[in-house]
Amino acid sequence: SNIIISTDKNILRTNQIKHALKERVKELECMYNISFELDTTENFNKALKNSVSYLINGFQYPEITFAHFEVDGTIYGDKECTNKKFVNILKEDIIVNKKKRGIIRVCYSKHIPFLKEEKKLLIEVSALISKIIEKKDLKIELEKYLGNLETLVKEKTKELEESKKMYQNLFSNAPDGIAISDFSGKIIKAN
Known about the structure:
By secondary structure, the chain is an alpha+beta fold. Helix content is 54%, strand content 19%. The strands form two sheets. Strands 2-1-4-3 form a four-stranded antiparallel beta sheet, covered by helices on one side. A two-stranded antiparallel ribbon has the order 5-6. The relative contact order is 0.09.
């Protein structure tokens, strides 16, 4: 049989470590869930709306946590987070290509400090959303360029056809005889 000798201090420290590990697991699940949501949901607005609950559950006290993402003027989640009644608000800007495109706000309804890991979580979620917005913007820009390229190809094809018709008319209606031959002297075309 094993004999366990422990002090209250060791038990307390063990419980603190267990609690801290549990919180890190919640934060990792939060990041995974938001990442999965943003990568797999076709509708970006719906993905952001769904991700708010993942963010709330990633915090130490989800039962007193309110949050929202604000992107390009649209708020996804609890709009109350902008309310002055919250004394403890954690914010992180959403920056895309060195330009502020939005903000993430997380609020506690009680005066409880945020963990430094929660602050890091918010920074990472902001970076993740920024990358998705950048990817979305690049896709839109690429589609625009593709459309412009298709239009340009059509225009150039039309110009080439018009030029070909003009050349054929000039060749066919020339008052003088014109003959085109290859290098061996064989006549290819004549009017």
